[in-house]
Amino acid sequence: MQEREAASRPVRVVLIGAGKFGSMYLSQARRTTGIHLLAVADLDPARANASLQRVGWEAAALGAKSFEEALKQGSTHLTDDAAAAIAHPATEVVIDATGSPAAGIRHVLACCAAGKHIVMVNVEADALAGPLLARMAKQAGIVYSLAYGDQPALICEQVDWARAAGFEVVAAGKGTKYLPAYHASTPETVWGHYGFTPETVAKGDFNAQMFNSFLDGTKSAIEMAAVANATGLRPAPGGLEFPPCGVDDLARVLKPRADGGHLHHRGQVEVISSVERDGRPVFRDLRWGVYVTFAAGHPYVRRCFQEYGIVTDPSGEYASMYKPSHLIGLELGISVASVAVRGEATGAATGWRGDCVATAKRDLKSGETLDGEGGYTVYGKLMPAADSLKAGGSRSGSRTR
Q1: Which of 305, 346, 266, 265 is nearest to 165 (CA)?
Q2: How far apart are CA 323 and CA 318, in angstroms?
């Protein structure tokens, strides 16, 4: 990136969607070497302008009235025309941060047609069609990538690390705050579960339905479907079980049941809870982080684990690594740099192994409209893709309880 900056060839980036995640990236892009934010495309350019200025951009840097003016001045063009921003010859990397599966798929297809790399913050689109989108991108000669800073890409990184070091990956996933009752949470009840006061909510750019999707299990199911599809790890037949677990117990809990652990099988995706089922906090929880557990596979490696202070299960066979937190859009520049400079994705689907299936939160009446992720009617449940097909969970209009 320093070389690109020195050669006056910055990576020219288009961001689509200036919401929470997009704003976090914008806060860092202005001070990242080798980056030129060519355009921000948003359905409401005025809102995008406000987001940019809120995170530190000077108004003078946002005054470009066209892409050509932005190129000439090194400034940023604000537009509501995402298609034009993707198609512009100077665009190199596109970031989709819309959160809309339909919009995300449209943008990937446009990137394939225009030959532009695509970073998908839009994990909803990836869970829906990621294997097909990644295949089409490869055929088009572009890079399709999950977004670093979001937990799926960070989990993929840990899985890659373990495998490249010669370890068998036993489990990988993330932490979250989970209780079974949260599956029934709605946008009206969500802030109480987070402990947010009305004053806290009023001061931030909080979206009740989005935050509810984190709480009711939907986002976890979507993200773990993306991880399964990218890494080859597979969901358990019953989906996510959210066992309570702290970082010191990862190797003890995230191993197969046959060996005294919680897993249905070796090579599983799983989310762990930061609270016990009775609501008590888990000691040294991993609520904001990601983890991988792996097997030694040989007495010599087990001895090395012991010699170098690796925390293992009682047998010494299973160990873990974890990252205690993630910085969401603040870290997204890692994907942009990896895609543009190395031609490497920070995670991408390689097959269809997991599916997120809409599951009723309450008895639904005929004619009710499902209001989507984080809403009042359904939450997302992770299922093995083959089981979803058998149950009709992947068909439009199917009903799953």
Answers
A1: 305
A2: 17
Query: Where are the domain boundaries for CATH 3.40.50.720 in the chain?
Result: 2-150+329-342
The residue among 358, 344, 341 whose CA lies nearest residue 395 is: 358
What the block records as the tokens of 248 is 């010191």
Query: Closest by alpha carbon to 1, among 338, 316, 313?
Result: 338
Cα(141)–Cα(349) distance, rounded to whole angstroms?
A: 16
Share of the chain above pLDDT 90, in %: 91
**Largest Cα–Cα distance of the chain, in whole Å?**
66
The chain-wide mean pLDDT, for the chain, equals 95
The stretch 33-52 carries a mean pLDDT of 96
CA 345 to each of CA 81, 97, 120, 371: distance values in angstroms, whole numbers, following the listed order: 26, 16, 10, 32
Helix (H, G, I), strand (E, B), or coil: what is residue 268?
strand
Distance CA 103, CA 100 (A): 5
Q: How far is CA 42 from CA 18, 31, 78, 183, in A?
A: 6, 22, 8, 32
Give 263-291 pLDDT, tens digit per residue: 999 999 999 999 999 999 999 999 999 99
Q: Is 94 within 8 Å of 140 (Cβ atoms)?
A: no
Residue at 247: amino acid letter: V
How far apart, in whole angstroms, are the C-alpha atoms of residue 1 and residue 10? 8
User: Does residue 234 have a pLDDT over 90?
Assistant: yes
pLDDT band at 12 (very low <50, low <70, confident <90, very high): very high
* Residue 340, number of CB atoms within 10 A of its CB: 22
* Separation between Cα atoms, residue 107 and residue 94, nearest integer Å: 9
pLDDT tens column, 171-224: 999 999 999 999 999 999 999 888 888 888 887 767 899 899 999 999 999 999
**CATH class of this structure's domain 2-150+329-342:** alpha beta
| Alpha helical stretches, state H, 115-207 | 123-140, 151-164, 190-194, 198-203
CA distance 79 to 244: 45
Give dist(CA 262, CA 279) in Å, integer. 20
Q: pTM for the complete prediction?
A: 0.94
Q: What angle, rounded to 10 degrees, do the helices at 208-215 and 218-231 form?
A: 70
Q: Which of 138, 79, 67 is nearest to 108 (CA)?
A: 138
- 289 CA to centre of own chain: 12
pLDDT value at position 225? Answer: 98
